[in-house]
Amino acid sequence: MTDVPALRLLGFPVRVKPGFLAFLALVIIWNPGVGWKFAIAITIFSLVHELGHATAAKRLGAQPEIALDFLAGSTRYTPPRPITPIERAWVAVSGPAVEIVLGLVVLGVMRVNPLDVPQVFESQVAGVVWIAGPVFGFLNLLPILPLDGGHVLSGALESIWPSHGGIVAIAFSAAVTLAVGVVTLLEPAARWLAPFALMLLVLQIWPLVPQRTRGTRRRATRPAPADADAEPVAEPVAEPVASEA
Asked: Strand (E) positions, the chain?
């Protein structure tokens, strides 16, 4: 199954993967009464979230590309120069920040207090906005890869421990996810969350560790500069900013 042809939104290319459409279909099937509203909210807030990343990355001189996939969105960009951990954190936080603010504004217009959960769920629309906006936004700030908070943690650790900071962030994320998964399996009321913990664990271990390993191999096998005394030139690399859908 091929991707939907790339669209352009506010000047950024947006590619919708088949996995994202499958995810929306599952949401609708899960609860036909409210599922379609939830699917619309997820689509809108996912796009707003990734546009937050893309706008921040563009301010660094990059040309971001947005993709929506199963359970996740991503904004990939190649900065024209090496970026600092603070700049990387700024790009990572921009997505959930815009998502949270938009959700709170919509709830405010609806005269719904986001801190009053019973009031929130008096309306289906308010409920899906609350979940797809502020709730998903704050969850995305948790310091666990591949969430945006995990990228902030990874950048901070890499600034302190350049050679191993990223691996430590992956190991920490996997350990926390594994612990949460065990708890969900042992607690009957939370057992339905176990598959999500397993999927998150796979997202952490499978795509991230090999990606860093391949990058290490490329650097190790890169030919030396013609001038042996010359300073090596740092090459811009693609900085994926992963987020949950």
From this structure: 4-9, 12-16, 65-69, 72-76, 241-244
pLDDT at 235: 32
Per-residue tokens: 99: 């998502």
16: β partners: 4, 68
Domain assignments of the chain as residue spans, ordered by start = 4-221+234-244
* 210-216: long-range contacts, CB 8 A cutoff, minimum separation 24: 212/166, 212/167, 212/170
Measured distance CA(135)–CA(24) in Å, rounded = 18
Residue-averaged pLDDT of the chain: 81
d(CA 37, CA 42): 9
Residue with tokens 């699917």: 39
Q: Are 85 and 158 in contact (CB under 8 A)?
A: yes
Alpha helices (H) in 15-68, listed in sequence order: 18-30, 32-59
Contact 53, 91 (CB under 8 A): yes
User: By the 8 A CB rule, do 242 and 74 touch?
Assistant: yes
Position 220 scores a pLDDT of 35
d(CA 75, CA 155): 17
pTM of the model: 0.77
Q: Poorest-confidence range of 83-97, 160-174, 193-207?
A: 193-207
